[in-house]
Design a protein that fits this description.
By secondary structure, this protein is of the alpha+beta class. It folds into two domains: 176 residues, no CATH class; 157 residues, no CATH class. Helix content is 23%, strand content 20%. The strands form four sheets. A six-stranded mixed sheet has the order 4-2-11-6-7-8, with no helix packed on it. The chain has a five-stranded antiparallel sheet with strand order 12-14-17-15-16. It has a four-stranded antiparallel sheet with strand order 3-5-10-9, with no helix packed on it. Helix 5 packs parallel to helix 7. The chain is elongated.
């Protein structure tokens, strides 16, 4: 992704609106423009700012455009945390056909003729930020609205970075004008029983990565220690031969838990991370429907949340007579990993082909 950079004084009464339309190496470009249809980032008022999409500015109209499909947009502050678009998300849908923005939802934003037989779409309305040195707005893509399913069993998520930091005096905005289509792929599931019995070949092929991976996970043993963390952390040897390390892993995954909730969670968490480092997850973009409500969370984000729980000192004391409140916290997390590993019903990964269809709104 190539960031756009702008710096402008508040005294001229203008503002910057930035968009970077990258999704991997997709062709075409989405960009901001004034009514002429040329690429622009500085505007004197909100009404001047339009969204355009198609071949890159200056390219011939026969050049590649955007992937066909329906897109939703929003305006935020530079951090991406403050939504400024003020109308309903369903009014902010545009449809790309033949590589260019071809239509908007009925009753949606005003349009003007654009380059290459496209339409350019007025981005307003959105709330104004205080006029500061370098005041900037970000134009980003978001996932389609709830209830919008492009293919049976499919889900959409936005592809903008999870976190974004940009000082107001020198905005560096990296956003994707696109959305990622995911489908349920239960066949990617791998249980802890799989890794303890059948996973030796896959682990040996990526040795020592799997050892380094699980040794960084704060995995808990089946020993609960109310006096501290001694004896409650599991690791495999990184120096011994593979057979020795695999035997250590197998014993850990199959040993009785003795009612230690942190240990039960750890073995499920271990299996999922082996899947991510050496199994099917390692070559996929994976999201998890953790609450079976159609809201997807990336595997990496869910793994990071769980790691923070297991590394908490309270996880050293989660036996039957241990910290009951913390046991309840870990139990909720355990259910999510158990469901993921056992049947894969919560696992979604990137579709091999992006569906194309008109907006239903």
């Amino acid at each position: 992704m190539i960031p756009n950079r702008s710096r402008l004084p508040a005294a001229i009464g203008a503002f910057a609106l930035l968009v970077t339309p990258a999704l991997g190496q997709i062709p075409g470009r989405a960009f901001t423009t004034k009514h002429q249809g040329d690429s622009a980032e500085l505007f004197g008022s909100a009404a001047e700012a339009y969204l355009a999409g198609g071949p890159r500015p200056g390219a011939n109209c026969t050049a590649p455009g955007l992937p066909d499909g329906t897109y939703f947009f929003q305006v935020t502050d530079v951090s991406g945390s403050l939504l400024l678009s003020s109308d309903d998300v369903l009014q902010r849908a545009v449809t790309v056909r033949a590589g260019v923005i071809a239509s908007v939802v009925a009753g949606g934003h005003p349009t003007l003729p654009g380059p290459c037989s496209s339409l350019i779409v007025q981005i307003a309305p959105y709330a104004a930020l205080p006029e500061l040195d370098g005041t900037a707005y970000c134009l980003a893509s978001i996932a389609p609205a709830p209830g919008y399913v492009g293919s049976p069993g499919g889900r959409w998520v936005a592809t903008s970075p999870r976190s974004l930091k940009a000082p107001a005096t020198d905005p560096d905005v990296k956003l994707n004008f696109n959305a990622l289509f995911l489908v349920n792929t239960p066949e990617l599931a791998r249980s802890k029983g799989y890794w303890s019995n059948q996973g030796a070949g896959e682990l040996q092929a990526c040795d020592p990565v799997w050892r380094e991976t699980i040794n960084a996970l704060c995995l808990r043993t089946n020993f609960s220690n109310p006096k501290g963390q001694a004896g409650t952390l599991f690791t495999v040897s990184e120096a011994d031969p593979f057979a020795t390390a695999f035997a250590q892993l197998s014993d850990y995954l199959t040993a009785p838990a003795n009612g230690v909730i942190a240990n039960i969670l750890s073995t499920q968490y271990c299996a999922a991370n082996l899947n991510a480092s050496c199994g099917p997850f390692s070559s996929e973009t994976v999201y998890i429907d953790r609450f079976a409500d159609g809201v997807l969370l990336s595997f990496e984000d869910l793994a990071a949340l769980t790691l923070s729980l297991l590394c908490d000192p309270r996880s050293a004391n989660t036996g039957p007579d241990g910290d009951q409140e913390w046991r309840e916290v870990l139990m909720g997390c355990l259910n999510e990993w158990d469901t993921m590993n056992s049947n894969g019903g919560s696992i979604y990964s990137g579709a091999t082909t992006r569906p194309s269809f008109p907006s239903p709104y």
